[in-house]
Amino acid sequence: GIVxxxxxxxxxxxxxxxxxxxxxxxxxxLSPNEEQMFRNMIHRLNVLLQTAxxxxxxxxxxxxxxxxxxAISRITMEMMHxxxxxxxxxxxxxxxxxxxxxxEVLNDLEQATREDxxxxxxxxxxxxxxxxxxxxxxxxxEDPTNP
Length: 147
Prior knowledge:
Elements: H1 9-12, E1 14-16, E2 23-25, H2 32-54, E3 59-61, H3 69-83, E4 90-95, H4 101-115, E5 121-124, H5 129-139
Parallel strand pairs: 3-4, 4-5
Antiparallel strand pairs: 1-2
Cofactor: FAD
GO molecular function, one term: proline dehydrogenase activity
EC number: 1.5.5.2
């Protein structure tokens, strides 16, 4: 997964080419410096979470806008898989004002059950309600928020 400190992020996300079916990089825009910054971030997260585990302190990963959240959630779920073996150390944040949140919680809970790690969740109303509605309207996208 992407929490391997020795892995290049651009090698992680591969998809079949529409032209010939070969597996190609989905992300090809990362420079070697950006790849190293990502590996440094993953290393720091692992050190932080290992220390939190030793001191029995839970770490709640906060949620952000919808256009950032998939990456944050992916990293958080992988960190749960790695660090939530005997107890919930890592918790993901779920914003209840978003239409997709219920299904995301169910999917993440099912993954934790299937892969045998503790699921950690923080449920919040969410702080970006108006911002998300404005952005969706401005870009002609479906409103991601609950009425």
